[in-house]
Design goal:
The complex is a heterodimer. Chain A is α/β, with parallel strands linked by helices. Chain A is built from 19 helices and 22 strands. Chain A is 34% helix and 25% strand. In chain A, the strands form 5 sheets. In chain A, strands 6-7-8-3-9-10 form a 6-stranded mixed sheet, with helices on both faces. In chain A, helix 9 (240-248) crosses helix 18 (503-510). Chain A is globular, with a radius of gyration of 25 Å. By secondary structure, chain B is mostly helical. The chains are: A alpha/beta, B mainly alpha.
Chain lengths: 519, 372
């Protein structure tokens, strides 16, 4: 698909973003994003979950307005106030989760909400069907316009979604993780469709976090990390390893190299052996995962998102049942899949979704700080809660962890990302844990907050807590960890000492290579 | 290419709700409902000002009018609390209506069973407990179905309203049940047995003002509920489960258990209303009258206007009770009965509209549509 790149480059890009930024309370979702899509190109947006891909596509489709920066189409500056504006300008979105009405026919779904040329009142279904057939032939997207959606396979439904966008005369198609729902054969067919689209002057923005497919499908790849566009690369010449490195961070500044690690003879506080568990769709997500964490040690779990890290921490937190395997916390076997059990055993957990899972956003800082201790004295005097105790503890924890907020009664949803994380860490550490599991603790935080959070993790380890750090940011992993466990497709592909680890060696393991191949 | 600028409005989510909006928006909604209502009144060739003035007089100001208002307010108070407590945790119990009926069935049943010889305080106490139990059992069904099978409680609780209504009708009209009066005129015209005098709930007289025991009980329950929500461990769980269910699971709470408990608490409150209806006012199980009143549905309006705050429910129930009471008094050839219902509907409509303002703010945008 990399034909004739030079001649394309001469014309103005089909769509381009210049310094696009978008902030949400406490999060910078897009930060000075630059990229351009050429006419007739498949341009991949590659990044971890939370790297800003979705926000960017929402800006491109007029759902959000950028706080700074602007978009250009064909060299002309454009701004979209509503999704309608973006559609009129020729940008169409093919959603990952189809927006189709199962009981309607293909033609009815496509006509739904689309402007009818000429006719204002009567819906000329025959004309719609004719047009669909034409488009189907033009782009090799054959679907029976009279078939009902529920009769179609997932791949065919996706074709309807693409036709829907083409029917609205889109020149630029945004596809959000289009292969996530497809079988391998259907994915091949999609790749044919992409060729046929681009050869007829359409451009495709292909959103994905899968390295392999991006290389095979795209002409160029823009890598997003922490809301920023890091680099745009040609797909030819890119390898999974090189992309993984860019995706998770290349400048390895070992700012906070600790070199302390577990004290000699420190006990193993967390021991996981041969752990298997299923993912959300019931397919195996963890395959025989084993790892150990000693007191005072920081063990990082590295890997591209979606390779079992989330399932691993959820099993440790008692939020996901395991299918087999053994978890031992400080000599005690964890034998129940129940969130209370790990809390009682001393497993603290800072989840990735801080406001959605870690905190109750509408409750105050003080109330959130007792979330895991509200059941027992001194916080509770059943059936009541002692607000004086809660407030006093909040005051001292906020001071100790430097939580900046108007008062302890401020709802946590009003805090900045860094302060949210400090509240979480304050609460988890106040339970005097033996193990601290933290998941992507600095994702979306600004640089100052990142440093604070890193320091708090180092402090926790210095107090003898065994820290299990799940992170997709290799800078962070190499800066903090004593050992790095790399996961790929639910298995541990290698455990390396941080002292010997390089981004390259970890990159190979993240791409599925085994430790033997590193040397 | 050309650039056209048009000015539009859009809604943006608020990060924060200013404190004053918590009372200003409900009050504003109420006033706009009156405003829209006056249009309706004008169309029906009524003078809005004099109608509102008459509602104010008949509902609140005239001698004895407030006592009547209290009677209308009592069931609304209980069903309002029922909706408020359930909605807080995201359990949309639309079944206050049916739970109210079942409460009335249980309370009248126990009153009849204890008979005329029971001591008054025992009979009244038993009715309170039986009413609450009946409502709780009825609300347990949608609660447990939601917890176990994730059924939509709006549908299940709504459907159970009809089941309860038909059940009550069956007891009086279609069977020789324990509740039915079979002697006297009851042999010809189906009706329920009157509960014994000892089981009839007292009312307290303060000068010209008569306060029914049911209203007092409701007010006490409202304060208790407020304390439960703000000060107790269970209330804390309710707030976390209601606002952030996945956080609740993460913290080791049992959201399903909390939801079932709250469903039952909610049902118990509506059931108490049913008990009060029998004990304080009707003194008989009257399926027709119950189903015509629609207290359960009106309770949703009360809860929404009170922004789910139990203490506010007391005041809102009295205000809406006053309007209802005035409606009875004003009904006549020149004042259609449906008008009061229309007004109540408008109040709900405007309240829900007002909620949008609490959550979003309106931003004017300049749109630049670029045509190439």
């Amino acid at each position: 698909m990399t034909t004739d790149v030079d001649s394309k480059a001469v014309t103005a890009p089909a769509v381009a973003a210049f310094g696009v930024s978008k902030r949400f309370p406490g999060v910078i979702a897009n930060d000075d994003v630059h990229f351009d899509v050429r006419v007739g190109e498949v341009h991949a947006l590659l990044g971890e979950n939370g790297a800003g891909k979705t926000t960017l596509s929402n800006i491109l489709t007029g759902l959000y307005r950028p706080d700074a920066g602007h978009l250009e189409m064909g060299g002309v500056r454009v701004s979209f106030d509503t999704p309608r504006d973006a559609i009129d300008a020729g940008i169409g979105m093919v959603h990952q989760h189809f927006r189709l009405i199962p009981t309607f026919t293909v033609a009815e779904n496509i006509a739904l909400g689309a402007p009818q040329p000429g006719e204002r009142v009567r819906l000329d279904m025959a004309a719609v069907e004719r047009r669909i057939t034409e488009l189907g032939e033009q782009f090799e997207l054959r679907v029976d316009p009279r078939a009902r959606i529920w009769q179609l396979s997932v791949g065919e439904q996706q074709r309807v979604e693409i036709l829907k966008v083409l029917y609205r005369e889109a020149r630029i198609l945004i596809m959000d993780e289009p292969t996530a729902v497809l079988t391998p054969i259907e994915a091949d067919a999609l790749s044919q469709t992409l060729t046929s689209l681009t050869s007829q002057g359409r451009s495709v923005i292909f959103i994905s976090h899968k390295l392999g497919e991006v290389i095979s499908v795209a002409d160029r790849i823009t890598v997003l990390r922490q809301g920023r566009s890091i680099e745009t690369l040609d797909a030819t010449g890119s390898t999974r390893e090189s992309l993984a490195t860019v995706m998770v961070g290349r400048e390895v500044e070992r700012v906070e190299r600790r070199g302390v690690g577990a004290l000699p003879g420190a006990p193993v506080v967390l021991s996981v052996s041969e752990l298997d568990a299923d993912g959300d769709r019931g397919l195996p997500a963890l395959r025989s995962v084993s790892l150990d964490v000693r007191g005072g040690e920081i063990v990082a779990v590295a890997g591209v998102a979606g390779n079992g890290q989330r399932e691993l921490v959820e099993v440790l937190a008692g939020l996901r049942p395991r299918t087999s395997g053994r978890i031992v916390v400080d000599g005690e076997i964890m034998d129940r899949a129940d969130a209370r059990h790990p809390i009682r055993m001393g497993v603290a957990y800072v989840p990735q979704d801080r406001l959605g899972t870690g905190l109750a956003p509408d409750l105050s800082i003080a109330e959130n700080l007792v979330l895991k201790r509200y059941r027992r004295p001194p916080v509770a005097r059943p059936p009541f809660l002692r607000s004086s105790v809660i407030d006093a503890e909040a005051q001292s924890l906020m001071e100790q962890f430097d939580v900046r907020a108007p008062s302890s009664q401020t709802p946590t949803r009003r805090l900045s990302g860094g302060n949210v994380q400090k509240v979480l860490l304050a609460r988890e550490m106040s339970g005097r844990p033996k193990v601290l599991v933290v998941s992507t603790p600095t994702q979306g935080l600004d640089i100052g907050a990142v440093a604070t959070v890193h320091q708090l993790l180092l402090d926790a380890a210095a107090e003898g807590v065994g820290v299990l750090l799940v992170s997709e940011d290799l800078d962070e992993v190499l800066a903090l960890a004593d050992r790095v466990v790399v996961m790929y497709e639910g298995s541990v592909t290698g455990v390396v000492d941080a002292a010997d680890a390089t981004v390259a060696s970890i990159g190979v393991l993240m791409g599925g290579g085994r430790s033997e191949e590193v040397a | 290419m050309s650039i056209a600028t048009r000015v539009g409005l859009r809604l943006e989510p608020r990060v924060d709700t200013p404190r004053w909006m918590n009372w200003a928006v409900p009050v504003g909604s109420f006033l706009s409902a009156l405003l829209v209502g006056s249009l309706v009144l004008l169309i029906t060739s009524q003078n809005p000002i004099s109608v509102y003035q008459r509602i104010l007089e008949r509902g609140f100001l005239d001698t004895g009018s407030l006592s009547g208002t209290f009677i209308s307010a009592t069931p609304l108070l209980f069903t309002g609390l029922c909706a408020a407590v359930a909605f807080r945790v995201g359990f949309f119990n639309i079944g206050g209506e049916g739970q109210f009926y079942v409460g009335a069935i249980f309370a009248s049943g126990i009153a009849l069973a204890l008979g005329a010889d029971a001591q008054s305080w025992i009979a009244v106490g038993a009715m309170v407990l039986a009413g609450a139990l009946g409502g709780a059992i009825w609300a347990f069904i949608p609660g447990i179905l939601k917890a176990c099978f994730r059924t939509n409680e709006i549908i299940t609780s709504l459907m159970l309203n009809y089941v309860a209504g038909i059940g009550a009708t069956y007891l009086i009209f279609e069977s020789d049940s324990f509740w039915r009066e079979l002697g006297g005129t009851g042999a010809v015209f189906p009706k329920g047995k009157i509960i014994p005098l000892s089981a009839q709930w007292p009312s307290f007289e303060l000068g010209t003002l008569v306060v029914p025991f049911g209203l007092l009980l409701g007010a006490i329950v409202a304060v208790w509920l407020h304390t439960l929500q703000r000060r107790t461990r269970f209330g804390y769980e309710m707030r976390v489960v209601g606002g952030a269910p996945s956080t609740a699971r993460y913290a080791g709470m049992r959201p399903a258990r909390v939801i079932v408990s709250v469903a039952m608490l909610s049902g118990a409150l509506a059931g108490l209303g049913g008990a009060a209806d029998v004990g304080n006012f009707r003194h008989v199980l009257d399926p027709k009258g119950l189903q015509q009143s629609g207290f359960g549905y009106a309770g949703i309006v009360v809860a929404a206007l009170a922004r789910l705050n139990p203490i506010a429910v007391v005041f809102v129930a009295i205000i809406l009770g006053g309007i209802t009471n005035a409606g009875y008094a004003l009904q006549g050839p020149d004042f259609p009965a449906g008008l009061v219902g229309t007004l109540e509907g408008l109040i709900l409509f405007c309240t829900l509209g007002g909620e949008v303002l609490v959550r979003y703010r309106i931003v004017s945008t300049r749109r630049q549509a670029v045509t190439v």
